[in-house]
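User: I'm writing a short report section on ligand binding and want a predicted complex to refer to. Could you take this sequence and nicotinamide-adenine-dinucleotide and write out the structure as tokens? A short remark afterwards would be nice.
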Amino acid sequence: MHDPKKSRRRFLRQSALAATGLILAPMIVGCGNKSTASSTTSAPAAAPVKDRQLGVALLGLGGYAKGQIAPSLQFTKHCRLTGIITGSPEKVPEWQEKYGIREENVYAYDNLEAIADNAEIDVVYVITPTATHKDFAVRAANAGKHVWCEKPMAMNPADCQVIIDACTRNHVRLSIGYRMLHEPNTQKFIGLSKKKAFGAFTGFTSLAGYAGSDPPTDNWRGQRAMGGGALYDMGVYTINGLRYGTQLNPVAVVSANQYRPTEVDVTTEYTLEYANGLMAEGKTSVVTEYNQLRIDAENGWHQMEPMQPYDGVQGMTSAGTVLGPPIDGKQQTLQMDNDALAIMNNQPVIAPGKMGLADVAVIRAIIESAETGKRVLI
Ligand code: NAD
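Assistant: Sure. The structure tokens for the complex follow:
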């Protein structure tokens, strides 16, 4: 007998296989991918998926999951919040009541593996402290679920690679929660960078900070081993911003300074170098406010300011053009819909694991440069 849940699982598994190039072209055609010359003799190519929904389980029910991701999920077209995975059982009743999550779809961290048998959950979204991303992401992938992983991807490039390998091995897809890459004004800004709207680039600036207080050492944000501190938390926006703003990979950290009143940095400044000799100045803080991504070029400039808040990012150019208006709705809604469509339509994701890894490599090089006082190759 036809079981729609099984068919759906099979479909999603096949999409993941196709995305990793592990299944043959005729099956890719059947999965709604681009048609090929041989497709005329195969089954007709299916239309891209537009109206399906993936079941998403949130792993970690802290501030970002509760304040941004769960509310944003309510407005998605292609996702449904079907499950939760938490180490805090006291949070479960409120989440179940608010989002109608069925008892069968509630998991603790220690029985996460059982999610493998749950056809209502297609994706596990890892939203826990950075040092925990690797283990949770690998366990989710081993359970056969697609993985969405918050930024920064992990503590170091090796851990990022472990996540990538686990997703590849299990034929599941992986996206990093870089919400800015899904934000329409940021996408217009990226378009200007790609076409070098103001001529050859001459220099770059990337600043992201907020005026908070020193992170307390009894919270993961104040703990170095957990991924606390300004550079991991906010600095990754400046690094990823330079990546999409320049469309280049930095080759070295020329110099860096970290101000660490406790075990974590509250402010970090760095200079990156690119293969063509261009330089980027970056600064990030959890105690000082600034928010700008700027690309200078021969004939002008374009910038985002502010470049990464949840609402109201805005871009402009030296020609007086304003990129905008700020979007109506949430970046995270766009992010999750784009990531769900990428899975269902077997398309590349906007923020793949290798991008997350590359940014974490820059973080580590900045730390090394600050600690040694030397130029560090990336
Ligand atoms: P938080 O402290 O508010 O929540 C963390 C959650 O993880 C809590 O529910 C906690 O119980 C759980 N947890 C699981 N294992 C834990 C452990 N070993 N130690 C401590 N807590 C543990 O943090 P948050 O603000 O929700 O951030 C979570 C992740 O989301 C981080 O990676 C952060 O960088 C990322 N984040 C992303 C954005 C964004 O805009 N993309 C914004 C905020 C946070």
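A remark for your report: The chain has two domains: 4-39+45-179, 183-327+353-377. Residues 60-65, 87-88, 127-130, 132, 150-151, 177, 179, 220, 233 surround nicotinamide-adenine-dinucleotide (CB under 6 Å).
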